[in-house]
Amino acid sequence: MNTPPVARHPSTSSCLSRRSLLRLGATAGAALLLPPALLAAGGRRRVVVWSEGTAPKNVYPDDINTAVAEGLKSLDGWEVIKASLSDPDQGVSEERLNGTDVLIWWGHQKHGDVKDELVDRIVQRVKEGNMGFIALHSSHFCKPFRRLMGTRCSWREYVADGTSVKIIVKAPDHPIAKGVKDFELPKIERYGEPFLVPEPETVVLDGIYTKPNGQTEPGRMGLCWTVVRGRVFYFTPGHETYGDFFRPEVRQVLRNAVEWTAPKA
């Protein structure tokens, strides 16, 4: 009489091995769904703060990028990186750029030194919706911002004469205005309207300049655009001889702007 074959079950180690492989496969599949910047930063988003290194040491001892970066450290889930024109690859290598969610830019005297191939990559990444861009103060003349706007991006005049400004929250329901109330800057370089840029989708922050002679003049302070698929924010204050980027109100605006300009998952 033939004995029927005995059914053999996989060993415990084999089962565990297969389960482990399944888990690894699921994890890898989920990772493929994440934006590249999240993978690069180990699950955190990345903001790069760039400046050209020309701010006076008596106001910004470690340059403007350090002051701005310090104000962003409280952002939850963000990696904050400083970059400068004098760094290798002008601070924004192709690898770094491809892992960046938001690029903040402060420039003044050295706009022309920024390489056009870097500008091309920045503009492409923003337009494709892979990165937000924030231009600060005199960066209205920087190459990336002008390319994104497609206009001259000039103001009527530029006057540093002791003018003060009251910054007014014009769009209180906008995410960039979260936790921000009207505030004053005792000194600002006055940028006279009109500002030759495309009509913004939102003017989050408005302003009233008060000149030394007591006369007042309006000026927009915080403007937003969507350029193709990417978000752009311009912030008027930030002259290098004033410590605007140490002020808590300014830091709150920039933290909010980082969250708003960042690509949405």
Describe the protein.
The longest helix has 21 residues, at 12-32. The chain has 7 helices and 12 strands. It has helices at 12-32, 36-40, 63-72, 94-98, 116-127, 143-149, 248-261, and strands at residues 45-51, 78-84, 102-106, 132-136, 155-159, 164-169, 183-185, 190-195, 202-210, 216-218, 222-227, 230-235. With 265 residues, the protein is of the alpha/beta class. Mean pLDDT is 88; it is low at 1-41. Helix 3 links the parallel strand 1 and strand 2 (78-84).
Stretches where pLDDT is under 50 for at least 5 consecutive residues are 1-41
Q: Radius of gyration over alpha carbons? A: 24 Å
Structural class: alpha/beta
How many alpha or pi helices? 7
| Largest sheet features | 10 strands, mixed
**CATH homologous superfamily assignment of the domain at 36-155 and 220-261:** Class I glutamine amidotransferase (GATase) domain
| Fraction in helix | 25-40%
* Annotation, overall tally of beta strands: 12
The H/E string reads: HHEHEHEHEHEEEEEEEEH
Shape: globular
CATH class of the domain at 36-155 and 220-261: Alpha Beta
CATH architecture of the domain at 36-155 and 220-261: 3-Layer(aba) Sandwich
Whole-number mean pLDDT: 88
Distance between the ends: 67 Å
Beta-strand fraction estimate = 25-35%
Within the CATH hierarchy, at the fold level, what is the topology of the domain at 36-155 and 220-261? Rossmann fold
